[in-house]
Amino acid sequence: MIALVLRSALERARTSRHGIAAGLCGAVAACFAVALAAPLMLAGGARVQRAAALFGGDLSQYRAAAPGIRSAPLVSAAAAGYEDRAFFRRPRWVPPISPVGVARAVARNLRGIPQGGSTIPQQLAKLYLRDGTRAGVLDKMSEALFATWLTRQAEPEEIAGLYLNLSAGTAMGTVRRPADGLHRLALALFGLPLQRLSREDQLFLGASPRGVQWLRAHPVLSAHRIASTRAWLIAEKLWDPSVRSYLDSAVIDSEGAFRFVEGWTERVASGELPTADLDLVDAIDKFRDGLEATLRAEFPGTAVRTAFAALGSGGAVLARSGAESALMAVNYGSVAKLEALDLAVEAFGPEAVRELSLPPGPCVRWTWSTKELRRSQPSRYCPTDVAPATRPMAMDEAVARSVNSMTARHAMMLPALLALRRPDLLREVASEVPAEERAALDSPADRALAGDLLSQLGEVVPPDAVAPELSYSAAAVALFRYLKDRREQAGLPAERLPEDPTSLLGNSSRATPEQIGGYLQRKLFANDGTCMLSDTGALLALHRKEGTLRWLAQRWPKIVFSGKTGSSPHDDSALAAVGLCLDARPVVLIGALRPIEPPLPDGLQGSVLLRGIDAYFKELVRLQRKPGSALLPAWAEPQPALAVEAKP
């Protein structure tokens, strides 16, 4: 009897279990069918309906915007490469869920690596449904259903465009920008409107949903994702690998590749800034177009990259010509002459430097000399392509004129000048070279060279009596290392410079235009937000109409400083920079050229950049932004001529 009862109970349970399972399967199938046919019915209540209405309004704004402002095909493709590579191939009736992405995210999360597995439609759904709180399982299911509904309402290009615009707007602040968020972020990051971005800029902009701060905080991972996405674009025939890119340069390192996002201007991007700084951005196209037209006309077939940036107080980036202005390292050669001049100003004072007129001595251009040449002609060596000084000239004038031979000679006079005027500072400089190394660098030729420099200052010292720290090579190495430290402290990279005094004036130095512009801003201006010149900047301003830059300075007399390098065919880059005042604020404009494969073409001179800057000035004037005059310190103001009394 008991056995019969148990058997009957088990059969009823088995029948009931089958029924329950069948019912559950039917319910799941029904839910799946409803989710495919009408996903909003299962996604939620009033909150989802509000999100759907907001999406409809955003989509209308997006469709009404000009195509060149709302999106760019390569940016959308790059975003798919970063986030959802099946995005443009996925049928619209298929729920936008990536099983592979979810599995990969779960595996990495279990290993402690935070990563999501959402597709682009799911990411867009989050922007409409999440309110900042941590999402649970039901929230994620609701977002998946909402994402399924989204794909039925708009084309993939529209979904990608809305996703990028809204993400860019979120990165810039709280203002919703469904139609032009990407355009505004392009202005902020690159200083160019969306339709004018290079393919490299568009590649970077495709990562904008990650957030500007995320790119900066994870440089190694960001650089890896950039490389992976570019490889995918090449495989998809969306990127031509035969056209060389500055991203191929070995100079770019992952640690520095995303520093350019530090310069983005939130107010420019959001449109809240007055038009003054937006004019700086608008004028960049004139610089780029004019310069590239000149290069094509005068140097056909030349593969040269151009970069341009405008920097304000503290090195803040006001405008840039694209990511290349912050990634393309160039030779800042003669600009580094400021290091020696700045040291002299600090050591002796600006008036002393201005009054220190050195006689026209022999051209001691040790930068290219060898020990054999120094032994044969210890005080008269001069390269054949450098003209020696023919008249007395102070260091500040030589730097303003960009006269390499005279600047190099005056820089090498610094140890001798320090010995006479600042022996305390000479001891600090000399400490850069240990006694053992100093002894190894010493030689009769070096002491003869040092004695010759001292004699030019009126000090007759026999070679045997020259102090060890003044021996020519030892003093040069010590000065080079000391200036190298100061260069790094001032914001210019120094870690890649060789321990070689032949690089004293920076001929082997590499920095981005933005780094150079920030350096010049600190050296030329008082860095207090006004147009008051620093002592060094005031000295250079006094000679701004002389030398190789006189053409630009005469055309624009309000320029307070000009500096140029890349004036020789063997240079592998060219750079020009000017400091001026706009709206009583200091601004440094800096342009650069770098060939895809160095060196620069024969005949290409750095003065080509000056014509590009001239075109930029013309555009600013057209926009009614005229360069103003800088405030010179009282000691640099011209003294009024004394009135001569007429004789009776």
Describe the structure in your own words.
By secondary structure, the protein is of the alpha+beta class. The protein is built from 30 helices and seven strands. The strands form two sheets. The chain has a five-stranded antiparallel sheet with strand order 2-1-7-6-5, with helices on both faces. A two-stranded antiparallel sheet has the order 3-4. A hairpin with a 5-residue loop joins strand 1 and strand 2. The longest helix is centred in the first third of the chain and has 36 residues, at 2-37. The radius of gyration is 33 Å and the shape is elongated. Mean pLDDT is 79; it is low at 26-31, 365-370 and 642-648.
Task: Outline the fold blueprint.
Blueprint: H1 2-37, H2 40-43, H3 46-64, H4 67-70, H5 73-83, H6 99-110, H7 120-129, H8 137-153, H9 156-172, H10 181-190, H11 199-205, H12 212-217, H13 219-235, H14 266-270, H15 275-298, E1 304-311, E2 317-320, H16 324-327, E3 330-331, H17 337-348, H18 350-355, H19 371-376, H20 395-400, H21 404-412, H22 414-421, H23 423-430, H24 435-441, H25 444-456, H26 472-489, E4 510-511, H27 513-524, H28 535-541, H29 550-555, E5 561-565, E6 574-582, E7 585-595, H30 607-622
Antiparallel strand pairs: 1-2, 1-7, 3-4, 5-6, 6-7
Helix pairs in contact: 5-9, 5-11, 5-13, 7-8, 7-9, 9-10, 15-30, 22-23
